[in-house]
């Protein structure tokens, strides 16, 4: 069932982060765009939000079936309504999942009939994303450790979503006429804080999960975590290249530099996908700490 769990977790993380991150950053990143460009970005984001909300619902179902199969006798229990019902009613994962189901249905409805990139969409998708921290490794801690680790995990999720979802919004802004420079400058400022929050909370999380630095080399979990750190560092490097080398030259050579910016943003998004894939795999492994 591990493969099914990885697929469910990966798709859910991706959809939930894009939904929250892009809806939370849309207004800020498009504020300085010409009206026509802003409307174009917001219209495309509405489609992205609808697809993300539906994907989050579908992947949540896959995640539930994978957990049920892991607790039971594999595929037989994964889709057994009685056993799945027991998972929902008798486990903390099930209770959180039911709340996430209600939030997910509401989010789908909001993306269909609600305002584009509205505050309610960002708020509810953020709460739904935070609920993931209630079913992770932090949920196994007690007392102060649970509070510190849970808070750090929540910050890590939200900041990572701002970064990834903001990249989606930025990519759409860069595809519009005269949309690159203003969006890049605004994303850079937002990105500084998001990256700082990701890195600081990541250090706290790593301390709870790995403990000693030696486990980054001697355990499978640690080696995968080290790879994740390298990928995140690569994302930071690409972002700095955009901000300090390409963005200042955009006005002088909009066609060539605009193409380079769109390419590097796509590279960042690919790196983000690899990071989320590793996060999905972590759910199938026991941390060494």
From TrEMBL:
One of its GO terms (biological process) is copper ion transport. GO terms for cellular component: plasma membrane. Keywords: Cell membrane, Membrane, Transmembrane, Transmembrane helix. Coiled coil: none annotated. The keyword Cytoplasm does not apply. This is Copper resistance protein D domain-containing protein. Residues 182-281 form the Copper resistance protein D domain. NCBIfam families: copper_CopD (NF033808). It is a multi-pass membrane protein. Its main location: membrane. It comes from Mesorhizobium metallidurans STM 2683. InterPro entries: CopC/D (IPR032694), CopD (IPR047689), Cu-R_CopD_dom (IPR008457). It is found in: Cell membrane. The chain crosses the membrane at residues 12-31, 51-72, 92-113, 120-140, 155-175, 187-209, 221-244, 265-286.
